[in-house]
Amino acid sequence: MPYRITREKSYIIMLVIILSLVGLGFIQYLMLRSNLTVSKEKYDQRIAETLALTGDEIYNRTPFSNLLSAIIRQDTVTFPIGLDSLKSAGSQFYRMYLTDRLTRAGISSTFEFAVKDRINGDIYFSSEQFEQGFQEEGNYKIPIEGIIASDCRCAPYLNIRIVDYNRQFWNNVWWYVIPAIIFLVLLTAGFVLLIRIVREQRFLNEVKNDFINHLTHEIKTPVFASSLSLKILEQKSGPDLMPYIQTARTKIEFVKMNVEKILELASLENSNKVLKLETIETAKLVGESVKNIQELNPEREFIVQSECDCEVLADSYHLKNAVINLLENAIKFSNDRIEIGCEAADSMVRISIRDYGEGIDPELRDDIFKKFFRARNGVPGFGIGLSYVKQVVSMMGGSISIESTPGRGSLFTIHIPKSR
């Protein structure tokens, strides 16, 4: 049975698409967050290792450690300059020193620093832009020990704050974020376009079905009137006109039959008609179907090879129509005998119709069950017979298969579940 996109199904499709997009965006967010976390951990580790190295370098007495010690002790005797000048010089030298050590470690961040007391929090000296206050990320502290702590008999520590902390990581992940955003936008646009196409196709399908239903209903009225007129004309006409009347009657019956097929197919597709499943004698149904066709085509040879005495669970009316449709197709495409078979196989019953006509090309076998598809022009019909057969058989829980060799004919087989 062909898959139809109803209004409810289209809403489900849209919901699934929206959930998929939200889920994809959430996964992208989690991946980005994980990447940032790992990058920050590596960065923090490098900063900590570099600051620990600077602490080791000023642990012992050196000219630089003496300068830092004098600033902390406010000793203007060892360095005979004003205290403000001493702090300014020490701040510049310490910044250059820290910048050099961070650069060697591959860190080029902008930073501010201060040397504070661990006990009372007093600032001994700091860089010009250092600001007091809490900073959660990019804030590093390391104790200053050794000769400096011994000289001042205090507990100083170095506090470094990375000004552009977050920018360090965003610069590394933009190459990942931007393509992800672009692809997500493109995917969203594609899904929106798909939803629009699905809705338009559903609308067009509804319009098409409505048009076909209205058209076929309009055709039924003149067909009925023509049949009645032919019946009256047949009663009042002589033998000379009978061949023409019979030809007209045959054509009208052909149109009537196809109109009924279209109405039945549309009814099934729109779920306006539910199949009535019941227990059916397979051999009897096949025999009645062949008899109906044989009465209309007495010149054709029909060979019934029935080995089936079991029952199936199906809709008698539609299963009979399905068999008749296959027989009509065999008549259209074959001038030879037609073989009808019926046999039981496991839980299924196989009803087969074989003709010895021109056969079907392999590339067309997947298309012949599509509605309105015609394998060859010039043959009467609207291309709905096989589509109808496949749909009603599928709705009964069965299937239809085909075996065909070009130039040697075709074998259509209906598989219907047995009655339990």
TrEMBL record:
GO molecular function per UniProt: phosphorelay sensor kinase activity
Keyword Coiled coil assigned: no
Membrane spanning stretches: 12-32, 173-195
UniProt keyword annotations, A-Z: Kinase, Membrane, Phosphoprotein, Transferase, Transmembrane, Transmembrane helix, Two-component regulatory system
Superkingdom of origin: Bacteria
InterPro entries (UniProt xref): HATPase_C_sf, HATPase_dom, His_kinase_dom, HisK_dim/P_dom, HisK_dim/P_sf, Sensor_HK_Regulatory, Sig_transdc_His_kin-like_C
Histidine kinase domain sequence ranges: 214-420
Reactions performed catalytically: ATP + protein L-histidine = ADP + protein N-phospho-L-histidine
Listed name of the protein: histidine kinase
Protein species of origin: Fulvivirga sedimenti
